Amino acid sequence: MQRFLAILDLPPIWLLTAIATVVGLDLAIALSLFGSGGQLVGGLCIALGLGLMAAAVVQMMLQRTSFIPRRNPNALVTGGVFALSRNPIYLGDALVLAGVILWRDVPHAVPILPAFMMLIQHRFILDEERRLHSAFGADFDEWKVRSGRWISLPKG
């Protein structure tokens, strides 16, 4: 039973739960704000999010390190999409969720996005950062300064 519960506590399950909540709110309360522009921007967010996730997974596989949460890393991946974000897969998840909210035109679901991001940060990211620091020390600390947890803003 514990293994089954551990399988349920994975980021894709949390993302699907958040998306299901957005769809449920859409079906329960008809409220429009974004219109056809929301579908366009939402579709772009979904595509960008999926592309970001795929690029991060490929980069991690090329470095022979796991992209599965709670596993110890074999390599510190800092280039490519990991220069944009220390957590491009989770950023991709957030973009997909934002895209669904916009696409389905569910403005009252917007608070689900920061709630999802906080949940992911506390359930997964903080532990992953501890593991990376433990495994890579100063190299992780240097990357942490250069790359933001969710997104890196241009410096200077």
Question: What's the mean pLDDT score?
Answer: 92
Rounded to the nearest angstrom, the distance between the terminal CA atoms is 51 Å
Sheet having the most strands: none
Helix content: 55-70%
The low-confidence parts are none
Rounded to an integer in angstroms, the radius of gyration calculated over CA atoms is: 17 Å
Shape: globular
Task: List the domain count as a whole number.
Answer: 1
Number of helical segments?
6
Sheet-strand content, in percent, reads under 5%
How does the helix and strand content classify structurally?
mainly alpha
Query: Which sequence of SSEs, written as H and E, runs from N to C?
Result: HHHHHH
How many strand elements? 0
Tag the structure with descriptive keywords.
0% strand; 6 helices; mainly alpha
Short description:
This protein is mainly alpha-helical and 156 residues long. It has helices at residues 2-8, 11-28, 35-62, 81-84, 88-104, 112-146.
Structure explained in plain terms:
It contains 6 helices and no strands. By secondary structure, it is mostly helical. The chain has one domain (34-146). Helix 2 (11-28) packs parallel to helix 5, helix 2 (11-28) packs antiparallel against helix 6 (112-146) and helix 3 packs antiparallel against helix 5. It is globular and about 50 Å long. It starts with a helix and ends in a 10-residue tail after the last helix. The model has no long low-confidence stretch (mean pLDDT 92).
